[in-house]
Amino acid sequence: MLSKLKNKIFASPEFKIINAQSGKDLFFTGLRGSLPAFVIAALFEQNKKIIFCSNDHNRLFKLKDDLNLLTGEDTAGLYLGEFDEEFESEVNTLSGTLKKLTGEESYIIVTSPAALNKNVIAEDSFRKNTILLSKNGEYLFDELLGKLKSFNFTKKKIVEEENDYAVRGGIIDIFPENLNQPVRIEFFGDTVESIREFDPATQRSIARLDSIEILPSAESMQTDDDSTEKLIDYIKNDTLFLLDEPDLIKEDLPEIYYKTINFKRSYFSGFPLVKNESLGESEKSVITELFLDSKSQPSFNSNTKMFAENLKEMNSAEYTVFISCTDDYQLNRTRELVEDLLGNDELTGIEFLNGSLHEGFIMPSARTAVYTEHQVFGRYFRPAKRKRKFGGITFKELSTVNYGDFMVHQNFGIGKYAGLKKIVTGGVEQEAVKLLYKDNDMVFVNLNSLNMIKKFSAQEGVTPKLNKLGGSEWERIKQKTKKKIQEIARDLILLYSKRKSQKGFRFSPDSIWQKELEASFMYEDTIDQASA
Fold first, then answer.
1. Neighbouring residues of 255: CB distance < 8 A, sequence distance ≥ 6
2. 426 falls within a domain
3. I need a surface site. Which of 363, 494, 510, 519 has the fewest CB within 10 A?
4. Model pLDDT for residues 307-350, shown as the tens digit of each residue
5. Sign of CA dihedral 169, 170, 175, 181
């Protein structure tokens, strides 16, 4: 169904102009809702490397989600170049971003001028420190261990979290941040005998791999070469640059704006080309201004009667209406509600999509309307975040921590907060949290790794002991806690299995009023709520 929607939009006269010019020297205006994502998706069919640059972090976040829905999961990546609590779990790592920029695969990166102006390790150094391991290939065992140490991986007894590694004889377990699961590498001397992906919870193998790539932690790695360059210098000349509100980018960071002149460029703006001040008259003369006459999704304020009347009007005007739903559950619930409101005979021209865009829109030239069910029913929408494995502290919470407060680091245990300090890592100056441990040992935690620390909490009046770096006490505490949690989980499983075996009461089917009430609930259902 998604391909049907894309085909309808792409067949419009405006999108035919986009295809004819291959995305170069176009100035887009009139875009509403999630329509910009469709424009970029169309440009992506002809330009396999795209950078979208904007000062608006919220816009970048929404674009990333919409683009991944339209072009395939993980095609688009968001990189902000700085810690942003609101989008922390959605942002690509620096290493992952550098990998995209230095690789041959297609990509869309949505980013900010400030991120493009960030000093990062030199490209040659990044390539040199990227590790490629292949089954039956050769790699010096001791050299690999040395690399992991220089990448600031943490040595553990067992690997459970990103950036952990463990060694047992000729076997190395490692969890690089660029992999979804940790891997177990078995050596015979300096020969890689096998590479297996494994589950960190059970430590059991999941799949055998022929090769893996281990990216250096570009935020914190230690290298012999301290040379740096701007992130924008990684970008190759065949990349299409899309500038959102170019006047603002030029005003904010003129050096980044002028560097983009070396690339193919197009522009997005809420104002017509004639009002643009960043482009000279000679530049404007070769630019095609493309006004996409679109409208925002109407506001129904959870009024199902108003929604039904609008669907009938759109049907009479020979529009195809696509209703974008968050998941299967919401799709089925919305379809049932629309059927009850209109009847099966009135559903012609209405399609339901599994996968939600952030904002709906109407495009008259394509005779197409895209409505999102969360906007129809006035619900807040945000795609599920990737869970932070350790929980961690937020930037807002960190601002309330006082000097000397006790903190807990996932790997090193209890220490004291000693403020924010500027440190130089890999030739790049970064701000980090300073923690003090027993014997005045220190640990610096990059602001991009705040998920590794949290504020210590205990009963009032309890003063904890500082842990010693390199000791085993903290690991013993973690294992004891884990064992207790497993015991509690076992008791809960037994309790719920007994409840499930008991007979229950079957309720009558939901009425249309019940369906309307459920659909208008302003928050996203949890998985358990949806299945209840």
1. 117
2. yes
3. 494
4. 999 999 998 999 999 999 988 888 988 888 888 888 766 678 89
5. negative
Give the pLDDT of residue 333.
87
pLDDT at 359: 95
Residues with Cβ < 8 Å from 466, sequence gap 6 or more?
414, 415, 416, 436, 437, 438
Q: Same domain, yes or no, for 78 and 109?
A: yes
- Rounded CA separation 147/132 (Å): 12
> Exposed, middle or buried by CB within 10 Å (0-12, 13-18, 19+), for 451?
buried
Tokens (6 digits) for 49:
């490397």
Residue with more model confidence, 225 or 119: 119
Largest CA distance in the chain: 78
Does one domain contain both 148 and 287?
no
The reply to whether 242 falls in a domain is yes
- Tell how far CA 169 is from the center of its chain: 37
Mind listing the pLDDT tens digit for each residue in 371-399?
Answer: 999 898 887 776 655 544 455 777 777 87
Question: For residue 520, what is the DSSP state?
Answer: T
**In the structure encoding, which two tokens stand for residue 507, read together?**
């309720």
- Please tell me whether residues 284 and 307 are part of one structural domain: no
- CB-CB contact of 315 with 367 (8 Å): no
Q: What is the gyration radius of the CA atoms in the chain, in angstroms?
A: 27
Q: For the residues 77-84, what does the mean pLDDT come to?
A: 78
Q: What is the pLDDT of residues 198-215, one digit of tens each?
A: 998 888 899 999 999 998
Domain count, the chain: 4
- The mean per-residue pLDDT over the stretch 518-526 comes to 60
Same domain for 154 and 140? yes
User: Average pLDDT for residues 459-468, to the nearest whole number?
Assistant: 80
Torsion sign, CA atoms 265, 267, 273, 277: negative
Q: What is the CATH number of the domain that holds 267?
A: 3.40.50.300
Q: Indicate if the pLDDT at residue 292 is higher than 80.
A: yes
The domain containing residue 302 runs over which residues?
A: 294-377+504-532
With 70 as the cut, is the pLDDT of residue 79 above it?
A: yes
Compute the distance between CA of residue 14 and CA of residue 365 in angstroms, rounded to an integer.
8
Whether residues 109 and 239 fall in one domain? yes
Helices and strands of the chain, counted as H and E runs: 18, 27
Residue among 395, 391, 425, 423 at smallest CA distance from 408: 391
Handedness of CA 395, 396, 397, 403 (dihedral sign): positive
Beta-carbon contacts of 262 under 8 Å, excluding residues fewer than 6 positions away, are 237
